[in-house]
């Protein structure tokens, strides 16, 4: 038994040493240190005492750590510029305001912060694209060919991180999967064990119809059907994530993944008619 009131979390990005913990908790783990100082606000946990050694409490501990990890990653920590040693007091800094040199990337920063987006399944794609172009104009390695080797290295890592953040948040499927990843959840590759048998049968019929399509119109009709289903799924996933229904969102994202694959197959089929 220990009081969460006196728990200070130092966030680490490493695998959990306890293999018996739930898989969802092993993606982001925090190291507990007893301290009276706080790097986050624990209004909901303050003055509470939890026996995390009790049966079934490990998942509560993991949820607590995930929430604290998110709060820790958003708190402002003062660091110094590697070049001029001036304090960088912004939450996300690409350049030092004093000497203007590019700073090292922070792999712990979420893609939503990098792209200046709300942590939401619904994003403004046009704003996302503007942010991407703005950052790449500033961070692209070609701009630092005459700079020091260290600054060239930082520009490359920053530019690569921006690329990854942009491509992940651009599409609903990758965006939703990333949001689940931040919660310690994911969809296993190549597994259909969790899919409903009726749904799998429907997929087989759609794939067979696409394979047997003899004209562009027949293939296009299947493509239009997939687009309509993906729009509907997008709305359902958004609602589930807003309500915090992660398991429901995970199941819907699995369906979206299948329909997205069929949509890609439709494009390939249409190219055969050209």
UniProtKB/TrEMBL annotation:
GO biological process: [2Fe-2S] cluster assembly; protein complex oligomerization
SUPFAM superfamilies in the record: Chaperone J-domain, HSC20 (HSCB), C-terminal oligomerisation domain
PANTHER family: IRON-SULFUR CLUSTER CO-CHAPERONE PROTEIN HSCB
Family: Belongs to the HscB family.
UniProt keyword annotations, A-Z: Chaperone, Cytoplasm, Metal-binding, Mitochondrion
Subcellular location: Cytoplasm; Mitochondrion
Pathway assigned in UniProt: Cofactor biosynthesis; iron-sulfur cluster biosynthesis
Subunit and interaction comment: Interacts with ISCU and HSPA9 to form an iron-sulfur transfer complex. Interacts with SDHAF1 (via the first LYR motif); the interaction recruits the iron-sulfur transfer complex composed of HSC20, HSPA9 and ISCU and mediates the incorporation of iron-sulfur clusters into SDHB which also interacts with HSC20. Interacts with the cytoplasmic form of ISCU and with CIA complex member CIAO1 (via LYR motif). Homodimer. Interacts with ISCU (cytoplasmic form); this interaction stabilizes the (Fe-S) clusters on ISCU. Interacts with the CIA complex member CIAO1 (via LYR motif).
Species this protein is from: Gouania willdenowi
Entries under SMART domains matching the protein: DnaJ
GN (gene name): hscb
GO molecular function, one term: ATPase activator activity
Keyword Metal-binding annotated: yes
Protein name (record): Iron-sulfur cluster co-chaperone protein HscB
